[in-house]
Amino acid sequence: MDRESNMSSAMAQKAHNLFQVYLRLRPSQGGSSTTGERFLAVEEPEAHHTAPKHITLNPPNDRRRAVEKFAFTQVFEEDATQLDVFHCTGVANLVEGVLAPHGGEGTDALLATLGVTGSGKTHTMLGSRSQRGLTQLALDVIFRSLGHNILDCGSDPTLEHSIGASDGSEATVFSASAFLDNVYADPSATMRASSRAPTPMIGESFGPTPTPSRRLHRPSVFPQQPDVSSLSVSCDPSAEYAVVISMYEVYNDRIFDLLTPPIKSVATKEYRRRPLLFKSTETSSDRKVVAGLRKVVCGTLNQALMVLEAGLHERRVAGTGSNSVSSRSHGFFCVEVRKRPKSSRRHAYDAPWGGSALTIVDLAGSERAKDAKTGGATLAEAGKINESLMYLGQCLQMQSDAASKDKPNLVPFRQCKLTELLFSNCFPSTSSYSTARHRNPQKAVMIVTADPNGDYNATSQILRYSALAREVTVPRIPSLTQTILTNVAPAPAPQLLSSSPVGSPPLHHRPFFPPGSTAGAYAPQSSPNIDRTFSPMSNAGSDCHRTTMEVAALEIARLSEELDYLREAFETERAARQEAESHLLSMEDRMIELEQAIREDCTSEFERRLDIEMARWRGNMQVEMERGEEHWGRKIEVFERTLAATAPQDENMLDDLEDEDKENVLLEDINQENDRLRRENEILRRELVGMSPSKRAPLQERNSDVVPNKGGAEAAPGSPRPNPRNGNSKPLNDDGNLRRRLENLRVSDDLGSVRSSAGSTSPTKKVRKLAAKRWDGVLDDELF
Ligand SMILES: Nc1ncnc2c1ncn2[C@@H]1O[C@H](COP(=O)(O)OP(=O)(O)OP(=O)(O)O)[C@@H](O)[C@H]1O
């Protein structure tokens, strides 16, 4: 058994792959940007007249990297034509499965392309200006094969309605003529140059009532090459068919209908498409469908091609550094072939439609931002594209697990919309609904496109996860152990190796590992050196002990080789790490410098602004101070004026207050004097009353007060009689003294003041004017 047969057996194990995977190499083009060193080499097939299936990926100028070999269902070299690809990928068989010639629902088919941007996916699927792609060829075969069994809305007016009624995806069904009349302007206009749509302009769309200037030009001629007029497949003669076409794209992980015109948003005034859901509906409970699509019933190939053109016109494409017309979304073109028994035509409204679909997918290409030179929205798109392709890669890698019937759910296809759409029909329907029809798992073909002179890294990544099998050969320098063993120990026979105690497959027959598996990725495989060294042993009956020793020696050699490889890998990693660390350090230094520079800038800027602010503040302060001074000056002035106006009055008031105090003191003095005088007056009166020579007692004291006889006691003999009015008992002196005293007590009416004669020492400026009348009265009454 040699390596080729191992690869074949590995592929045979994968007979239940969810996808048949083909590889198509793109021819290099003059003036293309991808003019690097060729890194892909197609391996010659084992037998003559068979197609190649293996390709070797040679790392350019890098002996440390492993040489990888990939196996595909078939490899198409650069000179393969569209027709070659069409025939060899079995598109006709897929179509036949959809048409279900032997009755029943048929089998869904999926035809998809995968590859780096610019590697030829769209060319393969949709063709070019002069070449038809697999889509057009498949449509041609479908319509040709259906022949007269196809129904047309023109010949059967109820068709559109009956298909709509039986549709399980909440679709809006149109007849082709109604749809195309709405989209295309002039049937006689010249055909657009390319089947590849230019970048659609927002608002430049076909709507229910588009203006004629915005309508597309109706294509009059389509490419006719390659010709498949001789090819047709069988269909069910007892059934009648209808072909229903829909188109949508997956853009930024959302699904948009390509046959429904964008709607103008009231808020933003922009034309936008409403994203659709991929879900189970009431009438499609057993599987998910894209809900709410617009579907067109086509009766002829020409109608179908025009619908395809209209949809492509709406698909998002853009020019990038890698491809001038690069698809920015994953495009889905669905051809549903509905069928029902011919006998039910009379009851068209009630007859249920069955059928299957052929879905053709043109995936957006993976790209590296550096090469694509994209930015902004296009770069963000690329991120989403790469992410969805990464999920697709994971799903493809899990194919072998999913092929095992026990673990169908291991394919992680629910991670994004793209993988859900591609994989959800890969498994038999498991619905428990009694009404649900049994559905066969879809047949799927993936065509991987690659440019042998293109981007090595991107291409190798695509090949790794899409290939059906992979073999890695680690280049190495033969170790000393191996050299010794080469000279000493003959290799055991392959059949003995296969039953080795470690249970590992024979070294020189190691089969391909599934792409992405750990063993395949890291375990060193047998090298050409070992293959050359250990030839099969001729004497199979040598003794057991020797064989065991040989096996052990071989294992030692393998381990030694592995050690060498790991040591080398370790050194590589260590060097890379050191480089990364030094880069990190230099970046840290750079960051510190930057930070310092930014801080200095900030400080100087801060100081500058602070100075400006300070100057401004000082100016404001000066102005405020001047204003304040002026204000207070005015206030003081007003105050002074007010003060000047009110000063005399205040002086008088102060004088009055002073006078009042003085008057009060004087009044008190006067009252006291008054009391004294009254007492004296009384004394004198009594003296006058008691004036007789015998009784007359000399006044002993003139100026001294006489103590009144209190209690009204009878006066002693010889004591003056008390005055009956006031009770004073002071006797009066003689007439001369009396007159003098009276003279002293006389009150001047003219001055209005009282002259005190009894030693009043307080000098009085002003004397309160007293009631003279009262004094006069007293004198009149009491003295006279
Ligand atoms: N097999 C081929 N023969 C001739 N020309 C080809 C072939 N494959 C690709 N080309 C040309 O290469 C260019 C890029 O191809 P295409 O647009 O199909 O790439 P793509 O993979 O679809 O890119 P993207 O993913 O960016 O959309 C086109 O001009 C196309 O005509």
Q: Outline of this structure?
A:
41% of the residues lie in helices and 14% in strands. With 784 residues, the protein is an alpha+beta fold. It folds into 3 domains: 97-431 and 438-446, 3-Layer(aba) Sandwich (Kinesin); 539-645; 677-783, no CATH class.
Radius of gyration: 62 Å
In CATH, the topology of the largest domain is named: Kinesin
Shape summary:
elongated
Count all strands and give the number. 20
Percentage beta strand = 5-15%
Number of helix segments? 20
Mean pLDDT: 72
Q: Low-confidence stretches at least 5 residues in length (pLDDT < 50)?
A: 189-213, 491-540, 695-733, 747-784
Bound molecules: adenosine-5'-triphosphate
Alpha-carbon distance between the termini? Answer: 180 Å
Q: How many structural units, i.e. domains?
A: 3
Which CATH top level class of the largest domain fits?
Answer: Alpha Beta
In helices, the fraction of residues equals 40-55%
- For the record, the CATH architecture of the largest domain stands as 3-Layer(aba) Sandwich
